[in-house]
């Protein structure tokens, strides 16, 4: 397809065939719900079938209404654009032109849609009936997020804006009229015309609202509200006389455009609203454009309808399937849509929503009227006050609704310690399969973790027992968990928190491994390449200079990401910080844990950039470093909401799936089967080696004798050189060498405990190391040993018989064998 600035595709001769193909756009019928209870008249979702037969959901990203022609346009992440005609009850798909970032219908011009492209940052004018491109406007240097038209009688302009610049286009010949450039730290959050088109209003990231006069683009007002921090959105009433401002802080400010003064300040925390990501007025009939209903999309993805006159929440929209990512209100308030986090689009009829609100209010009023004075509507007879256990659990589930818990979390920042285990159980929806858990317990301690106390220094016997039991149950449930070295360090903090309830501990950790550790075991026992690549892409998107610093030092994602993940953040956070983080991790989608890793790196940027060596950075991610937990968590939420869809982890992760309730747990299959087969093959080879000609004791003794003989060959040569100038006969020199050898060996055997210990360590390292334990020797220990060997060579104690020496050596080797015969001989 040929795209040229200010060029009409009708003039291209070779485009005739394409145009004819696009003319034949097939339309399909749609059916709206006549009287929906929840106000949803239609739900959109785009599902395609891959070549392998699997179904894949494509997420919708944007939508816009055209009230004058009763149409709706929606675009998905694959670049497909769907047009819905509510008057004819038809819908159709336009030919794909590529991923887009914003949509807008052209007012007073039938069937024309402006599409902001994601790649070249251009604006294409599309015919909604055929999909033909009639005009292309280039000029932006970043993806366009905002498109709007002014309704001014004198100057009718088009506004397009990205986070870094805004451009005003003169509509008569589509030329640039005005360009607004921003600087880092003050990028554009939102920009629009006032309803009458008199003013251009912009909200910036530095919590500033700037207002320009549209006719001459002169600044007339700058608003810096002291109470409102982290501003996210602004909205106008239809008459343009009032403006609402809100952000991640819990304050909402109404501002008068007539007097340039604040009308009122509303504390949203009274309504359990923890900050706002987006706000918009919902116009209603006969309200004179004053618009008393304000829609607020909270930071926990719930849409609230606030009556600004009575200051009451009249309705809450929280779909069961998913949270709300963004919403769009039609200009006249006839419809509004919600784009869900899972990618579906719910289309609401405002009149149906308001009717349901009124009906609910009437029911409440009638209930209050029926109450007698001094009694409660919720009072029950005494014989009904004793509830069964199932009824109590059902009420607890209602109270522990994830949406309510998220509101508590966003308001207070953490869950109360007293109820944390109960809340985590509710969030993870653990099944409490006592019979299935007992079957795993009956299998006993898994061989892989029989001597786990040798790897960890755990002073509490209760904690050690809980850790062994948990790791054994996980290994019996899935063989993979018996060979993953990082697993004990990953589950240990969970043991400390939940060890009083072993069943909850196991099911919580199993749920975390199944959902929040997706793709971790894809290449086991090698590092999870896919997960590390996702983390690196997110870091590159949001902080390229920090990633460049890591590359310059030679640090990969295995250091700044994998080290954190394998310990579940327990090495870099304090106990209280760890609990707060996992409150948020378990309350969000599985992708949140990777966002937390990137957030930790970005928040610690200044400290990381001062470290110039690989060793320093390696140590940094193995120690607790001071961190502002609020900034850390806030940045994680920003990354979760603002990371592009093409690199977002949710594109590769499945939604949360709880453990199944029943007599057994579902099988964990997220790992390559070759991992366990390899492990079992190694164990078979180890068993077969025991049936060979020599036992381990015989091989050890044989190797040690060979080592002593090699040393003996070098020692006489040294003494020979020392005595070469004495002029003695050859027989005399040989006799002296034999005496010296016996003296040296006797000296080694008669040394004190210190030297005997060093000898044992040397024997262990040189002989038993390949099959048993891991020891590291530093240079100072080697120098010390070499020095003592030299002293032993030159010492001349009284000689003993060679047979006594050999017998002592065999006893020493047998002692070593007995000491390490119970050690873990499994391959690592």
Structural account:
The chain is an alpha+beta fold and 828 residues long. Among the domains are: 94 residues, Beta Barrel (Thrombin, subunit H), CATH 2.40.10; 37 residues, no CATH class; 124 residues, no CATH class; 135 residues, Cyclin A, domain 1 (Orthogonal Bundle), CATH 1.10.472.80; 121 residues, no CATH class. Helix content is 37%, strand content 20%. It has 23 helices and 31 strands. A five-stranded antiparallel beta sheet has the order 1-8-7-6-5, with no helix packed on it. It has a four-stranded antiparallel beta sheet with strand order 2-31-30-29. Strand 21 and strand 22 form a beta hairpin. Helix 10 packs across helix 14. The radius of gyration is 37 Å and the shape is globular. The protein starts with 15 loop residues before the first helix and ends in an 8-residue tail after the last helix. The N terminus and C terminus are likely disordered.
Runs in which pLDDT lies below 50 for 5 or more consecutive residues are 1-22, 362-389, 689-697, 716-731, 743-757, 762-785, 787-803, 819-828
**Portion in strands:** 15-25%
User: Using only CA atoms, what is the Rg?
Assistant: 37 Å
How many beta-strand segments? 31
Assign the structural class, choosing from mainly alpha, mainly beta, alpha/beta, alpha+beta, or little secondary structure: alpha+beta
Distance between the termini: 58 Å
Query: What's the CATH topology name of the domain at 519-653?
Result: Cyclin A, domain 1
Shape descriptor reads: globular
- Distinct helical segment count: 23
Subcellular location: Cytoplasm, Cytoskeleton, Cilium basal body; Cytoplasm, Cytoskeleton, Microtubule organizing center, Centrosome, Centriolar satellite
Region (Disordered): 689-745, 776-813
Biased composition (Basic and acidic residues): 689-723, 779-794, 804-813
GO molecular function: molecular adaptor activity
């Amino acid at each position: 397809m040929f795209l040229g600035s200010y060029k009409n595709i009708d003039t291209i001769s070779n485009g005739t065939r394409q145009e004819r193909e696009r003319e034949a756009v097939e339309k399909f019928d749609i059916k709206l719900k006549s009287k929906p209870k929840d106000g949803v008249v239609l739900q959109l979702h785009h599902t395609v079938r891959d070549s392998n037969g699997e179904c894949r959901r494509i997420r919708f990203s944007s939508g816009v209404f055209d009230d004058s022609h009763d149409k709706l346009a929606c675009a998905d992440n694959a670049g497909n654009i769907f047009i819905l005609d509510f008057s004819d009850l038809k819908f159709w798909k336009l030919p794909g032109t590529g991923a887009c970032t914003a949509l807008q219908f052209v007012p007073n011009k039938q069937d024309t849609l402006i599409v902001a492209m994601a790649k070249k940052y251009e604006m294409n004018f599309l015919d909604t009936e055929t999909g033909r491109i009639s005009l292309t406007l280039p000029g932006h240097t970043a993806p366009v997020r905002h498109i709007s038209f002014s309704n001014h009688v004198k100057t009718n302009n088009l506004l397009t804006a990205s986070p870094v610049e805004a451009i005003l286009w003169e509509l008569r010949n589509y030329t640039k009229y005005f360009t607004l450039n921003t600087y880092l730290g003050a990028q554009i959050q939102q920009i629009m015309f006032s309803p009458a088109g008199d003013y251009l209003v912009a909200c910036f990231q530095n919590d500033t609202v700037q207002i320009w006069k549209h006719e001459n683009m002169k600044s007339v007002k700058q608003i810096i509200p002291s109470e409102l921090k982290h501003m996210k959105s602004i909205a106008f009433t239809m008459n343009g006389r009032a403006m609402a401002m809100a952000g991640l802080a819990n304050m909402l400010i109404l501002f008068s455009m007539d007097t340039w003064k604040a009308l009122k300040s509303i504390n949203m925390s009274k309504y359990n609203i923890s900050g706002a990501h987006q706000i918009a007025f919902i116009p209603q009939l006969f309200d004179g454009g004053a618009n008393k209903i304000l829609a607020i999309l909270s930071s926990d993805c719930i849409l609230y309808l606030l009556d600004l006159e009575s200051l009451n929440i009249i309705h809450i929209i929280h779909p069961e399937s998913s949270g709300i990512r963004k919403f769009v209100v039609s200009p006249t308030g006839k419809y509004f849509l919600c784009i869900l986090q899972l990618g579906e689009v719910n289309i609401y009829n405002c009149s149906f929503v308001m009717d349901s609100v009124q009906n609910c209010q009437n029911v409440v009023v009638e209930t209050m009227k029926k109450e007698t004075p001094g009694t409660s509507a919720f009072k029950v007879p005494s014989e009904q006050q004793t509830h069964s256990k199932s009824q109590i659990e059902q009420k607890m589930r209602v109270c522990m609704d994830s949406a309510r818990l998220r509101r508590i979390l966003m308001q207070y920042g953490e869950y109360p310690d007293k109820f944390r285990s109960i809340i985590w159980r509710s969030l993870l929806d653990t099944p409490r399969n006592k019979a299935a858990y007992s079957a795993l317990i009956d299998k006993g301690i898994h061989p892989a973790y029989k001597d786990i106390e040798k790897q960890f220094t755990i002073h509490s016997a209760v904690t050690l027992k809980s850790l062994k039991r948990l790791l054994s149950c996980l290994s019996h449930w899935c063989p993979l968990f018996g060979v993953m070295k990082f697993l004990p360090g990953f589950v240990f903090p969970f043991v400390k928190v939940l060890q009083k309830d072993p069943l909850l501990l196991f099911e919580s950790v199993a749920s975390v491994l199944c959902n929040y550790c997706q793709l971790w075991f894809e290449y086991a026992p090698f590092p999870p390449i896919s997960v590390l690549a996702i983390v690196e892409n997110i870091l590159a998107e949001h902080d390229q200079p920090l990633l460049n610093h890591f590359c310059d030092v030679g640090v990969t994602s295995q250091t700044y990401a994998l080290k954190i993940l394998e310990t579940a953040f327990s090495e870099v956070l304090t106990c209280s910080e760890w609990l707060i983080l996992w409150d948020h991790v378990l309350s969000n989608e599985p992708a949140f844990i990777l966002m937390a890793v990137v957030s930790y790196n970005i928040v610690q940027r200044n400290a990381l950039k001062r470290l110039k060596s690989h060793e320093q950075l390696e140590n940094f991610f193995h120690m607790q470093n001071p961190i502002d937990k609020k900034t850390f968590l806030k940045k994680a939420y920003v990354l979760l909401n603002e990371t592009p869809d093409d690199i977002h982890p949710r594109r590769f992760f499945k939604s949360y799936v709880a453990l199944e309730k029943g007599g057994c747990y579902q099988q964990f299959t997220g790992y390559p089967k070759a991992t366990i087969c390899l492990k079992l093959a190694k164990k078979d080879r180890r068993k077969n080696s025991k049936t060979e000609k020599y036992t381990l004791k015989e091989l050890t003794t044989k190797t040690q004798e060979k080592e002593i003989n090699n040393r003996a060959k070098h020692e006489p040569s040294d003494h020979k050189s020392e005595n070469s100038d004495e002029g003695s006969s050859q027989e005399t020199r040989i006799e002296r060498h034999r005496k010296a050898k016996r003296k040296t060996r006797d000296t080694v055997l008669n040394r004190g405990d210190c030297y005997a210990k060093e000898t044992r360590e040397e024997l262990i390292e040189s002989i038993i190391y390949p099959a048993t334990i891991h020891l590291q020797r530093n240079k100072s220990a080697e120098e010390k040993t070499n020095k003592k060997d030299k002293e032993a060579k030159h010492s001349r104690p009284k000689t003993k018989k060679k047979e006594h020496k050999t017998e002592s050596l065999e006893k020493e080797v047998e002692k070593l064998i007995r000491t390490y015969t119970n050690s873990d001989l499994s391959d690592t």
